[in-house]
Design a protein that fits this description.
mainly alpha, rod-shaped, 74% helix, 115 residues
Length: 115
């Protein structure tokens, strides 16, 4: 944190700075003001796009999570919230796929013994 609280940039202080630069008689200051305004617009757009991407990724992961949970028995203890990261999701899918394969192999062996 800055020692001088007046040096902190807030949306209001930045807007005031841009307005003062635009009103300045110096052509360089006017260009800087335009660039700063453009950067603020770009930043807001990037933030909006990122938010949409995160929401879409979360929806995609939730759909995959629900699909992954579908074949499991309701008696199994499974977390019903999707993991926070794609890495966690990948690790859980791998672990559960291996468990499912072992369960299916065990069932096949039991059926063969009964035959």
């Amino acid at each position: 944190m800055e020692k001088d609280p007046t040096l902190v940039d807030s949306p209001i202080s930045m807007a005031v700075d841009v307005q003062l630069l635009k009103q300045s008689g110096d052509p360089y200051s006017k260009v800087v003001a335009e660039l700063r305004g453009d950067l603020q617009t770009i930043s807001a757009t990037v933030h909006e796009i990122y938010g949409k991407m995160v929401a879409e990724e979360q929806a995609r992961m939730r759909a995959q999570w629900e699909q992954l949970l579908a074949p499991f028995q309701p008696t199994e203890e499974l977390p019903f919230e999707p993991p926070a990261t794609a890495r966690e999701f990948s690790d859980i899918v791998k672990e559960w796929t291996q468990r499912r394969t072992r369960q299916q192999s065990a069932r096949k062996k039991r059926r063969k013994k009964k035959s």
